[in-house]
Design brief:
It is a single chain. α8 (182-193) links the parallel β7 (175-179) and β8. The strands form 2 sheets. This protein has an 8-stranded mixed β-sheet with strand order 3-2-1-4-5-6-7-8, sandwiched between helices. Strands 11-10-9-12-13-14 form a 6-stranded parallel β-sheet. The chain is elongated. The protein has 431 residues and is an alpha/beta fold. It contains 15 helices and 14 strands. The N and C termini lie far apart (53 Å). It binds uridine-5'-diphosphate-xylopyranose. The site of uridine-5'-diphosphate-xylopyranose (UDX) has 20 residues, from α9.
Length: 431
């Protein structure tokens, strides 16, 4: 099949590149010319394990290319996936301006083409109703009458984790397909049957597919905040919450995943999606208490670690500290909504004179969002650790797990990276 993908960011690129593994021809469209050129040269604009190799092979086999032209893509494509960002507005609600811009481009392009069967697939995370009431409505309102009846609209959310995206794409727990007609649904089932067994494909109405994505991310976020809430209680009782969650997670109905207590969740999805769902629910008159509490617990978590240090030193005024980890999770350079950056902000607010920060991959990105003369970014772990004796661990990079790094140090661990066997003093956030 010929598959077009609009948006060659993280989701679009991984999806498009992985489709070539089953011999589909993929044409990626992006507004950023540099990105398009890089992809065509085999240079992936993002790092994901395994992605570069598949991209290069697809280019060699001549079954993938990128372009800035909708026309070039749409004159060939049988199916068009939409994978553009849906960021948050300042009030937390979802911003649909990229979806609207794509719909406008599609209308212009369709009106230059002869009608034939075409399937649109919403891959972007969008609130229930968006695919039909905004995307589909804009397209149907703008196109020539001959096109009507030829176009199918579908929704197919992604559940890819950063750093695991290729693996998650190739071995998904489920593929959710929402469709407004048989043709669109069958085309998507045909594409995905090459990747997963039938029983993993869930067919639902479009708005159900949209809500499945939000409900999944909200539930995982809630599990983390739940572990943190119980963790804060456990800490005050002298209990290690990881021992508690081991017992809790053995119940198959609950499961152990996403019950790791610590500084909380960050990244480009969980905080944004929970806020958007909260806002959406409220706009319809629902209180959304669990989502509200999920975000509130998460927001306060970094200050819990700072409080432990305040308890020990009474004041942090004028002190120098080390912060290990800046990325929102290990094995990525992404610092979006990273709890580590919130921890640093909190430390500076409490009067810390200097923060010696280190991360194996995320320093450049952290510098662009956290530029303060009191933060010294170090190029090596040793250099950071050599600069102060009070150490905060904010991201569970494997590099930080060596106990002997902490000899003579006073460590406040936000991710249960070490046991503190060699440290002079050790305290965990929820253990
Ligand atoms: C997430 C979802 O897992 C994925 O399905 C969705 O499509 C996009 O959002 P990602 O943002 O890559 O993926 O990160 P994930 O690995 O899920 O972790 C999110 C955050 O939660 C990280 O900050 C991580 O440190 C934190 N986390 C995760 C915990 O604090 N405790 C846990 O037990 C698990």
């Amino acid at each position: 099949m010929k598959i077009g993908i609009v948006g060659s960011g993280y989701v679009g690129l991984v999806t498009g590149v992985c489709f070539t593994l089953k011999d589909h021809e993929v044409i990626l469209v992006d507004v950023v010319k540099e990105k398009v050129d890089a992809i065509n040269k085999g240079i992936s604009p993002i790092y994901e394990p395994g992605l570069d190799e598949i991209l290069k092979e697809a280019l060699e086999r001549n079954i993938l290319r990128a372009t800035t032209s909708y026309e070039e893509m749409m004159k060939e494509a049988d199916v068009v996936f939409i994978a553009v960002p849906t960021p948050s507005k300042p009030d937390g609600s979802m911003d649909v301006r990229f979806i609207e811009a794509v719909a406008k481009q599609i209308v212009e392009t369709l009106n230059k083409m002869e009608p034939r069967n075409l399937v649109f697939v919403m891959k972007s995370t969008v609130l229930p109703g968006t695919t039909e009431n905004i995307f589909k409505a804009l397209i149907l309102a703008g196109i020539r009458d001959e096109w009507k009846g030829k176009i199918s609209f579908t929704m197919n959310p992604e559940f890819l984790r950063e750093g695991m995206a290729v693996e998650d794409f190739l071995n998904p727990d489920r593929v959710v397909i929402g469709a407004d007609n048989d043709y669109g649904r069958e085309v998507l089932v045909k594409i995905y049957r090459d990747f997963v067994d039938n029983e993993k494909i869930l067919i639902v109405p479009i708005k159900v597919a949209e809500l499945i994505k939000y409900a999944s991310n909200a539930f995982l976020s809630m599990k983390i905040s739940f572990a943190n809430e119980i963790g804060n209680l456990a800490k005050s009782l002298g209990i290690d919450v990881y021992e508690v969650m081991e017992g809790v997670g053995m119940d198959k109905r609950i499961g152990r995943a996403f019950l790791n207590a610590g500084l909380g969740f960050g990244g480009s999805c969980f905080p944004k999606d929970v806020s958007a769902l909260l806002n959406f629910g409220r706009s319809l008159g629902h209180e959304m208490k669990l989502l509200e509490a999920t975000l509130e617990v998460n927001k306060k978590q970094p200050s819990k670690l700072v409080d432990l240090a305040l308890k020990r030193y009474r004041s942090l005024e004028g002190k120098e500290v080390v912060v290990l980890g800046l990325a929102f999770k290990p094995n990525t350079d992404d610092v979006r909504e990273s709890r580590a950056l919130e921890l640093i902000k909190e430390l500076l607010e409490k009067g810390v004179a200097k923060v010696h920060a280190y991360d194996p991959k995320a320093i450049d990105n952290a510098k662009t969002v956290l530029d303060d003369e009191r933060i010294i970014y170090h190029n090596s772990l040793e250099s950071a650790l050599g600069s102060a004796d009070i150490v905060f661990i904010a991201t569970e990079w494997q590099d930080f797990a060596d106990e002997s790094l902490y000899e003579g140090k006073e460590v406040f661990d936000g991710r249960k990276v070490i046991k503190g066997e060699k440290a002079k003093y050790y305290e965990g956030i929820c253990w």
